[in-house]
Design a protein that fits this description.
Largest sheet: 2 strands, antiparallel
Number of strands: 2
Structural class: mainly alpha
Helix content: over 70%
CATH architecture of the domain at 6-209: Orthogonal Bundle
Shape: globular
Length: 306
């Protein structure tokens, strides 16, 4: 069987993930309006980049992408399915809190009112708290679902990178209204944006029982993709409009944040993003060849407009 297209693969993964998100939150019997706020925050048409990285990394390492219907059945593998759920729940929590008036103070997320605009600040704050907690609850299930070793490895990969994401958010706030160097800017975003992307790629590899050499290649890929993703965001913030982005354009300028565009200019920032994508893809190609979903995903990310 020919390798299914990335479009087919990603659509199947996202369909499974969105069913799991709704079922998982509903199963917790949260009181209203907390239940509705959590569902609202998590079912708002996001790109699902991080779960797709988990699935693509697993498919690349396990080398079973050509088996009939594998891309449809990947959601039946508990460790993969729960890892996808965990990274997206943690990402969802971070967005709910990022949008709050005490943080970035945004009214629009993915073309809809942000959670605190829809439900109020107190409910949004609690929704973020619950989503973070649920992300870690999934590992209680993973540790016993397939094997203690895989579950433990997933937890020890995920936990420090969740902490790093929050550290990066603090550094980002500290950097407002300051002229940061490129090294300082990268230190922020290797944590704030990059840490969860690293976790996603590495957890997919762990689920596929990657060896040390393979994990090293995945780590190089993830570190470079994570930084490239942030450089792209900085570019899109000034080159796309609010309708394209689904959130307010020029929001970084409003908060007087240091960005790669502010530091390098648009064209040089694009060149830098391209070099990061190339480094990421070369690491994967050297280890796994160029016919895999991580390369497809990198190409898709490079072409994104929001």
């Amino acid at each position: 069987m020919t390798k299914p297209t990335f479009t087919d693969f990603s659509q199947a993964i996202i369909t499974q993930l969105e069913r799991d998100i709704t079922a998982y939150i509903t199963d917790k019997h949260l009181p209203e309006p907390l239940h509705s706020a959590c569902l609202y925050a998590m079912t708002n048409g996001g790109k699902r980049v991080r779960p797709l990285l988990v699935a693509s990394s697993f498919a690349t390492v396990s080398q079973v992408i050509n088996q009939q219907n594998f891309y449809k059945n990947i959601g039946k593998i508990d460790s993969v399915r729960l890892s996808m759920l965990a990274v997206e729940l943690l990402h969802g929590y971070s967005l709910v809190h990022d949008d709050l008036p005490c943080m970035d103070d945004d009214d629009l997320r993915r073309g809809r009112p942000t959670t605190h605009i829809k439900f109020g600040e107190a409910t949004a704050l609690l929704a973020g708290d619950v989503l973070q907690n649920l992300a870690f609850e999934t590992f209680c299930e993973q540790i016993f679902a397939e094997s203690w070793r895989i579950g433990n490895n997933l937890l020890t990969t995920f936990t420090p990178r969740a902490r790093r994401m929050i550290m990066g958010q603090m550094l980002d706030l500290n950097g407002e209204q300051k002229n940061l160097t490129q090294a300082e800017l990268e230190a922020i975003h290797r944590d704030k944006t990059g840490a969860l992307i690293e976790a996603s790629v590495l957890m997919g590899g762990i689920c596929g029982q990657a060896n040390e050499q393979q994990l090293n290649a995945l780590e190089i890929f993830s570190k470079n993709i994570g930084l490239a993703f942030q450089v792209q965001d900085d570019i899109l913030d000034v080159t796309a409009d609010t309708e394209q982005l689904g959130k307010p354009a020029h929001s970084d300028e409003k908060l007087d944040k240091s960005t790669y565009v502010k530091l390098l200019g648009v064209e040089q920032a694009k060149d830098y993003a391209q070099s990061l994508f190339d480094t990421a893809k070369n690491a994967v190609i050297a280890e796994f060849g160029n016919e895999n979903y991580l390369i497809d995903l990198a190409n898709w990310l490079w072409a994104r407009q929001k």
